[in-house]
Amino acid sequence: MVSIILFILSWLAFLVLGDKRRVPELFPTAMFSAYLGLLTDLVMKEYELWSYHDQPLSESVIPLFLDFGIYPVVAYLFIQFLPQTWTKRLGWIFFWSLGAILLEYAYLKFELMQHHRWWSLWISYISDWVIYVLLILQYQFYKKGRG
Questions:
Q1: I need a labelling partner for 65 at 20 to 30 A (CA). Which of 1, 24, 33, 58 fits?
Q2: Is the pTM of this model over 0.85?
Q3: Dihedral sign (CA 115, 116, 122, 128)
Q4: Rg of the chain taking only CA atoms, in angstroms
Q5: Choice between 65 and 26, residue whose per-residue pLDDT is larger
């Protein structure tokens, strides 16, 4: 149920905050984030590093809500408001990764998610940084190719 609410809230955030004029520019980055989500889902399934327990959704449906709802919207808004300098971008990444890790912590605390094997909140936090840097690099690469 929480995943459904987050899915709806993320799309409401897009409708309210998203600059629709920039869809052609930002859509590839949003889809890149969905691709990264699908890739991590494959890793998660293969190595069982974490699992979801958000009723009434099945464990295989929750990643789809994330991959095609929350992740693309987050990537879109993250890049839409991206600062120009790398110094400010590091603060921006910190801000967004802090939000992501607090959300994951809440999922763990309310037993909507469980880590397995060697996966931990710290590894998730580092992974969030890697993902945000990849989003920036993908956006810059795409923008450079168009300009």
A1: 24
A2: yes
A3: negative
A4: 15
A5: 26
